[in-house]
Amino acid sequence: MKHSSLLFKNDILTILDQTLLPQKVKYKKISHLKDVYTAIKNLQVRGAPLIGVFAAYGLYVSLNTKTRIKKTEFIRKALHNIDYLKTARPTAVNLSWALTKIQEVILNNKESTVPEIKRLIKKTAERIHRDDVKLCRMIGITGCKLISKNDSILTHCNTGFLATSGNGTALSVIYEAYKKYPKIKVYVDETRPLLQGARLTSWELLSKNIDLRLITDNSAAFLMQKKKITKVIVGADRITSLGFTANKVGTYNLAVLCKHHKIPFYVAAPSSTFDLSISKSKDIPIEERPAKEIKTLANRLIAPKDVKACNPAFDITPPGLITGIITEKGIIYQPSKKNILKILNRI
Amino acid sequence: MKHSSLLFKNDILTILDQTLLPQKVKYKKISHLKDVYTAIKNLQVRGAPLIGVFAAYGLYVSLNTKTRIKKTEFIRKALHNIDYLKTARPTAVNLSWALTKIQEVILNNKESTVPEIKRLIKKTAERIHRDDVKLCRMIGITGCKLISKNDSILTHCNTGFLATSGNGTALSVIYEAYKKYPKIKVYVDETRPLLQGARLTSWELLSKNIDLRLITDNSAAFLMQKKKITKVIVGADRITSLGFTANKVGTYNLAVLCKHHKIPFYVAAPSSTFDLSISKSKDIPIEERPAKEIKTLANRLIAPKDVKACNPAFDITPPGLITGIITEKGIIYQPSKKNILKILNRI
Hints:
The structure is a homodimer.
Chain A: E1 6-9, E2 12-16, E3 27-30, H1 33-41, H2 48-63, H3 71-86, H4 93-108, H5 114-144, E4 152-155, H6 170-180, E5 185-189, H7 196-207, E6 211-215, H8 220-225, E7 231-234, E8 238-240, E9 245-248, H9 251-261, E10 265-268, E11 274-275, H10 292-295, E12 296-297, E13 300-301, E14 314-317, E15 324-327, E16 330-333, H11 337-344
Parallel strand pairs in A: 4-5, 4-7, 5-6, 7-10, 8-11, 10-15
Antiparallel strand pairs in A: 1-2, 2-3, 8-9, 9-14, 12-13, 15-16
Helix pairs in contact in A: 1-2, 2-3, 2-4, 2-5, 3-4, 4-5, 5-6
């Protein structure tokens, strides 16, 4: 069976609950605003591009009620829902990017009827979805050129069909490369604390029969020292105009290791991941998640209950450690304001 | 209550089963050879120095049976037990170091009676134990000189009273420093896959009221970038004559990060951790442990059941990344054959 992270059909929005993977494959219908928010906040839906697509559809279903409503009331509710959903998670830019796109549509069509505005919101969400699928494919095709037939690629967190509504970003590159070079090998780090590597990426790669080894995050340096890893490819949650890249915590660690071992370090992300309104590392808000995520596993305590923990969900990799950023428009080598704009301004 | 990793009294050997911590504090009597082997193999007893002390006592209790036995048979059995126990774990040198010491005692006293040889084995085990306690204290005192009052120290795995029969190695430095500077802060990385940091080091530090933060192994680089970590101190399982240092996997990762962030990286270990019979990195056997340790937690599967994993238990840090090795005899700066011998040859 081919799985999807998200389905939207006949105005019904369904997600694959990623917190239950790989033990349970359970789809869940989402129709209320609160459930959209919770699904994002609790990582039932995760991965920067997927969050964007899901939030757009989620907003639509939250507004698509049978109750008759006045237009001013509808617009007020829509803008409120948008503001509320934007606060579900702070780091990935895609969430606010997608919701802002819909906000613009609403504000530009204030003169239309409620059913017409609803139709436009739905259309916008569907376009964001379609674009994401297309961008994923383009990223795969672009990044594939970097891969050689005997590569052993390390990837972090999950950036595949569970993190997007298409084939993924970093994993899309691997999927595309696998078609050409079926002997490539993939190392998947488990990605503590929430084990997106162990639970999600392993599951994805197994479903595609790709040769993989699961490792602890602790082992990457050792494997690099032993020359077992030839490339690292990761995703991104937000990239500034200077190339500072926020991604799942542990990414910066890998970038430093790559520099030390002279291994190419690539980031794969659609152009919508760039937030050109900010430039510096400190401009990116870093989500601090609950200590519980480190201290418990499947509700079982794995540390003393009174211990304090520090749980940043993301880190920031400076552009100097990035060999290239793979986008749907091309590869940005030596990321800098100039080099970023050169690629992003391509049509 | 003051806890001990190991107790030996009236010929009875008791251990604190570390696999059950921090949820359960359970002591367990050990009297059979197979149980000694299993306790080491399954990490009920762990930490290079503790393994040495425990193996010495364990050998003694395995031989201290009531059954009358001929001397040749006793010696044959003793040497067999030594050989068998040496295979329980390959990387830490302390296991074979302690057992070889006892082997020498046996071979040098072949002319003595069985009770007399038993007495000598016991005496040797007790001396190894006493020495370990003393060495731990000396390491603490020596290393404490490196610590400043506002330090934020990151430590890896567990190197305290649970890893030794004394106060620890790297943690002994922290305990000693804490007496002098009660405001020092400690970051404890969880140390996947077996969570010795989360389960054991957190528990130890909490019991001593030291200010600590538990972090995932993935977060160290991020915290270093934010200048939250001023020093890293770790233990060691084996150090070659050139200073190549085997320790819990993830150690080498931290050493690379320290170099990148210009943070001092210290190793704390007694002189018995040096294996001067070998020099190069490749001479150290690296234990590959079962995939199950990564794929399950408390017998619950946290990855797809069919996924292959790669689980090296140790890694090797080259001397060039080590600021200093803290031993009971002094600190070896810029570890090299010459600098190592200069300190180790001190009486």
